[in-house]
């Protein structure tokens, strides 16, 4: 699986935008970029995913660099409830065999939101 | 729709004892995953089922861990005998088909403490 690199931790103030970076210099043309987050004492939850173009949903926006070697998850107005570990994960569109649909989690970025 | 259900939520056992975890995925989801999450780390895939067949169990310690998914719905994960290093949160997840862009939905997890 292609690897991703994320900062260990980031801090933000409530109601301010947050930009969470992810580097994936070895990404292949068929890798989707997925973001999941894990709130304290809960299982991970899906945030957003994209392939080449920027994506928006009700939770966040995903900005993908033109060369696809990096991406940024954008939370437009952080709330205290957004404090979580954020994972950037690559998944092969054409996954088969033992990598079929598997999520390979790294350490993620611990986001702290201050009131 | 109802989420992924897991039980028990917490379990404390002594080493060399046996333990079993249960998971009920989202209705209609063909793919079921069991992950192990050690404190401070991201989840690690233990086993993946597609309907009632195993797709990936490459990281399952087969000398002590076993899992089954009867009739392609519920699943159980068993540890026998448990070791101290098995202390972790065991997460169950499901997805519709398990392909590259498919969203995985996680349950709340079972926190296992081995004394």
Which regions of chain B are unreliable across 5 or more consecutive residues at pLDDT < 50?
A: none
End-to-end separation of chain A:
38 Å
Low-confidence stretches of chain A: none
- Oligomer status: heterodimer
Mean pLDDT of chain B: 93
Structural class of chain A: mainly beta
Give the number of helices of chain B. 0
What proportion of the residues of chain A form beta strands (DSSP E)? over 45%
Structural class of chain B: mainly beta
Number of helices of chain A: 0
Please provide a brief summary of the model.
Chain A is mainly beta.
Keywords:
heterodimer, A: 115 residues, mainly beta, five-stranded mixed β-sheet, four-stranded antiparallel β-sheet, 9 strands, B: 115 residues, seven-stranded mixed β-sheet, 11 strands, 48% strand, globular
What does this structure look like?
The complex is a heterodimer of chains A (115) and B (115). With 115 residues, chain A is mainly beta. Chain A is 0% helix and 45% strand. Chain A has no helices and nine strands. In chain A, the strands form two sheets. A five-stranded mixed beta sheet of chain A has the order 1-9-8-3-4, with no helix packed on it. In chain A, a hairpin with a 5-residue loop joins strand 6 (61-64) and strand 7. The radius of gyration of chain A is 14 Å and the shape is globular. The relative contact order of chain A is 0.34. Chain B has 115 residues and is mainly beta. Chain B is 0% helix and 48% strand. Chain B contains no helices and eleven strands. In chain B, strands 2, 4, 5, 6, 9, 10 and 11 form a seven-stranded mixed beta sheet that branches. In chain B, strand 4 (31-37) and strand 5 form a beta hairpin. The chains are: A mainly beta (115), B mainly beta (115). Chains A and B meet through strand 4 and strand 8 of A and strand 5, strand 9 and strand 10 of B.
């Amino acid at each position: 699986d292609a690897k991703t690199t994320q900062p260990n931790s980031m801090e933000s103030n409530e109601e301010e935008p947050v930009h969470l970076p992810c580097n994936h210099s070895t990404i292949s043309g068929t890798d989707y970029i997925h973001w999941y987050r894990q709130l304290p004492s809960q299982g991970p939850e899906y945030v957003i995913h994209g392939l080449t173009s920027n994506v928006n949903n009700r939770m966040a926006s995903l900005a993908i660099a033109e060369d696809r070697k990096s991406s940024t998850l954008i939370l437009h107005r952080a709330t205290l409830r957004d404090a979580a570990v954020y994972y950037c994960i690559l998944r092969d569109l054409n996954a088969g065999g033992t990598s079929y649909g598997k999520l390979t989690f790294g350490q993620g970025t611990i986001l702290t939101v201050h009131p | 729709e109802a989420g992924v259900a897991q039980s028990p939520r917490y379990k404390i056992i002594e080493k060399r004892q046996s333990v079993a975890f249960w998971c009920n995925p989202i209705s209609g989801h063909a793919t079921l995953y069991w992950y192990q999450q050690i404190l401070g780390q991201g989840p690690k895939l233990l086993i993946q089922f597609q309907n009632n067949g195993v797709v990936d169990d490459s990281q399952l310690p087969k000398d002590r861990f076993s899992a089954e998914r009867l009739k392609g719905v519920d699943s159980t994960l068993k540890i026998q005998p448990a070791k101290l290093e098995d202390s972790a949160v065991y997460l169950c997840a499901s997805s519709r088909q398990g392909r590259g862009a498919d969203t995985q939905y996680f349950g709340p997890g079972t926190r296992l403490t081995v004394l």
